[in-house]
Protein: AAA+ ATPase domain-containing protein
Amino acid sequence: MSEPESCLQEKVRGGTKMNPGDLFGHIGSIVGSLMFIWAMFKQFFPYQVVNQIEKHSQRLVTYVYPYIQITFHEFTGERLMRSEAYSAIENYLSSKASTQAKRLKGDIGKNNQSLVLSMDDHEEVSDEFNGVKLWWASGKHISKAQSTVSFHHPMSDERRYYKLTFHKRNRDVILGTYLNYVMKEGKAIKVKNRQRKLYTNSGSYWSHVVFEHPATFQTLAMDPEEKEMIIDDLITFSKSGGFYARIGRAWKRGYLLYGPPGTGKSTMIAAMANLLGYDLYDLELTAVKDNTELRKLLIETSSKSIIVIEDIDCSLDLTGQRRKKKEKEEKEQEQEKNHTGQNQQGMQEKDVKSSQVTLSGLLNFIDGLWSACAGERLIVFTTNYVEKLDPALVRKGRMDLHIELSYCGFEAFKLLAKNYLNIDAHHLFGTISELLKEIKITPAEVAEHLMPKSASGDAEIYLKSLIQALELTKMQEKVEHGPHWTEN
Ligand SMILES: Nc1ncnc2c1ncn2[C@@H]1O[C@H](COP(=O)(O)OP(=O)(O)OP(=O)(O)O)[C@@H](O)[C@H]1O
Structure:
């Protein structure tokens, strides 16, 4: 028999297009009818003849219909839950549908921005896996029994399905690997397209909004090599589920971002979330009462998420209880000296005790319980003062990567100029390059100068404004450091 493609050519019968699923279904029903007739009449034939006929008819059936079909229904179970397999297949087929199917269905995606296309009912697309060709057809049953009952819900009696057709010689490949592959890919596409969320905690409860920060690594101004290294690290992490499972470690990674305010720490976190398609949990530690609440919050975070604790040095008494004790003693001495300050003192004490989350509570969670949570998670701490942090918090293994975000260098400036002014070169770049070698300015400040103030603004105006600011800072520093101050 020739390859199935020839059978699968569009057939127009009585004006309706026939897909391979229908075609094979049709052949199947003819074969079924013949079998039925044979069952009725075979008693009139001698035993040997029956044996011979059955042997040959079996061969004939196999010869005529060498394909296997698997149907995946949209709704399954008694409560008609939407099948995960169906939705994974739908996602998997969406890209194939847009290039192959002649009739497509369009819908607005969950992020309300992109149009999502899928194949319309009774359409068909082909696929190839390890050299094996197969076909997916979409279809729908309309239940007649329900159509009168569900008058108010005209769509509720439609049952959609996908039908997979493949040659029986490929059974092992399809059932063994292909279907797993489709499920995995389909779920990955779903994760990529899902609407991501930004969670924040008030006390021990998370609330969320849609996360739509536009930052990407492309727009993040920093040393290009370091940026490449970070992107590599993140992508490697996100693909290393198998590796972490094999070595028996929790699939987590810790990042410490440090640097002065306005150097892009928060922007980088948003870029990380956008790169990996993860949700963001912005954990406000000062709002968490104690370690029990902290544990509850962290356990509730979902897989594929970044948990962020910003300004960790301000959120936690990082030098442990000792400093607290010392402060308390000092305050007590002061209190003894000054009885009139009693009320105020009480209030300050209350502040110190308002959050009883401790460093050890946080570390215990990162090292211990955390490991029991399935799925991948990044934990990111940020600080403006890395030197203030307790070494226990930042030691390797807990914080796998320490990333310094620093003042704006010339490379970072060029990227900002490209982003904000859409220029790659300018005669003032040389002056700026020289000034940036001497003056510390944050990318946030540079961005402020380059931000177009009018629709017709000339790039030169903004670059000159930046040069002015840099020269002013240079003069101020000279004044502050006296006449002997030398530029470094
Ligand atoms: N490296 C950078 N690349 C591009 N834009 C930047 C960068 N750094 C800062 N910016 C701009 O400055 C603004 C403030 O930056 P951001 O909040 O990321 O800094 P930060 O280091 O997190 O500051 P803080 O320590 O005060 O939280 C951002 O909205 C962004 O537009």
Residues 220-222, 261-267, 384, 405, 443-444, 447 surround adenosine-5'-triphosphate (CB under 6 Å).
